Each structure stands twice: as C-alpha cells, then as structure tokens.
Amino acid sequence: MRSDKYNSGSGEGESRNTRSYDRWEETQMVFASRDKEKEELKRRKQREEAYREYLQMREHPNANRAPEQDMKTYSRQKPKKNKPILTPDREDDDFEPSRKAKKTRKKQDKKMKKKKGKRIRRILLLVILLLIIAAVAGILFVRGLMGKVGTVDIDQSALGIDPQVEQALSNYQNIALLGVDARDMSDYENCRTDAIIILSLDKENSAIRQISVYRDTYLHVNEQYGYDKVTNVHAYAGTTATLHTLNENMDLNIKETVIVNWKAVADAIDGLGGIDVEIQDSEINEMNKYIKDTQRNIGGSKKKIKKAGMQTLNGNQAVTYARIRKDSAEGDYRRNERMKIVVSAAVDKAKTTNPLKLNQIANQVLPEIKTNMDTDSMMKVMLSFIRNDMTESAGWPFNVGSWTNYNGAWCGPPVTLQTNVSELHEKFFAQPGYQPTQTVQDISAEISRRSGLY
C-alpha cells in the first residue's frame, strides 16, 4: 500500500485523489521509453561501426592478423600503434582516411614489397643452387664412367709432329680413331688397323670433321720398316708408330688416340638398338658372305641382309658392313666410307638415347676401349660431339694409284703425296695454297720413284 502522503484526506471513508499519481506514472513510462530508444540507437550504431570495420578488413586484410580476429567485436578503445590503419571500404564514400593513415599504409606496402622481393630472390637462389648441384653430379657421374676406359701409353717425343705444323694447326684437335682386328683387347698391340679415322675438332668454328685414311695407302713408316701399307704399321711397331706415320706423311698434329676393337663397336650398336643405314644392292652379297665370320669372332647375331634400302642394322651387321673389303660397284675404296657412315649413325643415335640406357652401354663398352686422353679431355670431346654435328667427311688420299710392291702385295700409293696433302689442308684446315713441309715433299718423291706414279 502506498504512503498516506498520496491521500487528500485522513479520514477513513474519504475518497482518494489519484490524478497526480496517474500523471507521475505516465511520465516515468515516457522517460523509460526514451532511454530504451537511446540505448537501442547506441547499440545499432555500435553494430554498424563493427560491421563497417569488418568490411574494411575484408577489403584490406592485414598479413599478420590472425584469422580468428576477423570477427572481433567492436571496441571503442583507441588502436595501438602497431595495429594496422584500415583504409575505407570502396562502397563507403563518407569515410576518408587521415594523412597519417595514408602514410602508415604506404610504409606497410613498402615493407610487403621488400618481403616479397626477398622471397623471390631466395627462390631463384634455391633454383640456381639445385642446377649447380645437378651439373656437378652429372660431371662426377661422367667422370666415373670415363674412369672405366682402358689406357694406352704414347711416347709424345716420337710422334713426328713438325713445329711449324703444330703452330699452324693450334686451333684444331686431331684425334686418331683406330679400329683394330683384335678379338681380345688384352692383345691389341700386334693387330693391324682395319679402320683409321681422324676426328678433327675445329675449336674456332665449333665443327667436327672426319678424315678416313684408306688402310692400303702406301706411306713411309720409319727408318726401321721403311715404306709399307699404313694398316700394317700398328702390327709392326704399335700405336705410337701409327700416329707418327700419320703426322709425318700428312703434316698433322695428332697426339691423342682412341683404340677400339670390333666387339666394342657391335656391343655399342646393339645397346643403342641398332643404327639406320642405307644398304646398296652391290653390298648385300659381301655382307652375307662375311656375317657368319663376324659372328664367330665376336659372338652375337648372324642374321643376314635380305634387301637393299634404308634399314636398321644390329651390331654384327653394322660391323660386317664396315669391314667388307669391296662391293661389286665401287670396289675397296668404299670401305672407309662405310666406316664413316657407321660412326656418324652411332653418334646420331646416341644423341637421342635415354641417359640411363647410355649408362648401361658405357658400363659394357668402355672397358673394351683404350685411350691416352685424360678424363677432362675425354669429357671435352664428348661435349663437342653432343653440341656439334659432323660437317664434313672424306676419304684420303683423294687421288690414289694402283701398284704391286716389291713383296708382291697390292698397295694404293697417293698420286702424289704432296698434292694430296696440299688438298687436305686447303679443304679441312682453311689453309689455301698450302705448301707441304720438306719431309712430305721428300717422301712424296720417293713414293713416286718406287711406284712409277707421278
């Protein structure tokens, strides 16, 4: 019950005046309603400001802000110094950032760009490092393979290189590739050279050329053995004497050699899956005649050739193709051409062969090869073959005669040695009007005197 101060009288039974009381209650309700509206307006503004802040963060996220902070409720506290200054939302035209906010944002963008630049540089350095590691691993791998090649001792003081020739051919690395008829490389010194190919690497023009010397070419050997077929020199006096004969008679600077037997050639070609060669009709009979002999000496297949034209030869077929002495159309002199065809086809096939496959071939074939080159030299030569194509090839001598020597053996003397050497240097070594050394001139005169061919 309310206090008596609200009653107009004190007597019991007197009527009460409630007008003032009702007016006061109404006033209190109005005030309460206004306070409620103000509170609701205040909360609505807080929600709008919080939502605006959320939209601004979505439009301009801070990289260092944790994801759980994206839905952080609105706070009226002032932002800390390290807290990012938010830029206006594109849809809010009423918000204009202060000059200080723009400056702070500019600094933050600059820092972000620097971090991004550092990240890119780190990635590039990592890629370069990986490439270097791969290159080093590849070099070590190849060096390991090269270490499997056998060695042959060459007396560098007995190679017969003329000082003027060595200076004139300083831009050319000439390597003698000798194919011997040895069945076993443990006894190759007493074997003849069935194939003599000079691989000439032009350092200045990045070119590779082949010069095939006909095995029956009549040349000067040395003081002990006089004059004979170049194929016999290796059996008489070994590898050093063979290089001496080529240098002295052709004005060359050969210091390096690679010696292979026919089994190594057949194994390499079989490992490559064969080589593509165009067989002529005139060569089929000779190939099929000697394919069994090749198979008996080095093993492998004895499959014969059935037709002419371009076809894939296996190892034994390719060796027989390179070794046949003659064909019905072109005789013995196409033999060296066939050897060059086999070498070029094998090199071209190796360039497109899987490296893992090449590794398997190398493990099998390299022990059957001998050389006096060190590992670094072999790697340089290998890279030259990978990067460059063989631009020219020729059989030498260019002009050959026919003569039966004093022992009753048929020979092919150059006609004349001097003119053949001049032509060789003009075509292959960029020496127009080349004048051979006096040694070549003297040997040329003696060959002409003996054979009667001038």
Give a description of the structure:
- The protein is 48% helix and 15% strand.
- It is built from twelve helices and 13 strands.
- The termini are far apart.
- Helix 5 (262-271) packs across helix 7.
- The strands form four sheets. The protein has a seven-stranded mixed beta sheet, with helices on both faces. A two-stranded antiparallel sheet has the order 5-6. The protein has a two-stranded antiparallel ribbon with strand order 8-9.
- By secondary structure, the chain is an alpha/beta fold.
- The longest helix is centred in the first third of the chain and has 48 residues, at 99-146.
Set down the secondary structure blueprint:
Elements: H1 19-59, H2 99-146, E1 150-151, H3 163-168, E2 172-180, E3 193-202, E4 207-213, E5 218-222, E6 226-229, H4 233-250, E7 256-261, H5 262-271, E8 275-279, H6 281-298, E9 309-313, H7 315-323, H8 334-351, H9 355-365, E10 369-371, H10 375-387, E11 390-396, E12 403-404, E13 410-411, H11 417-428, H12 438-451
Parallel strand pairs: 1-10, 2-7, 4-11
Antiparallel strand pairs: 2-3, 3-4, 5-6, 7-10, 8-9, 12-13
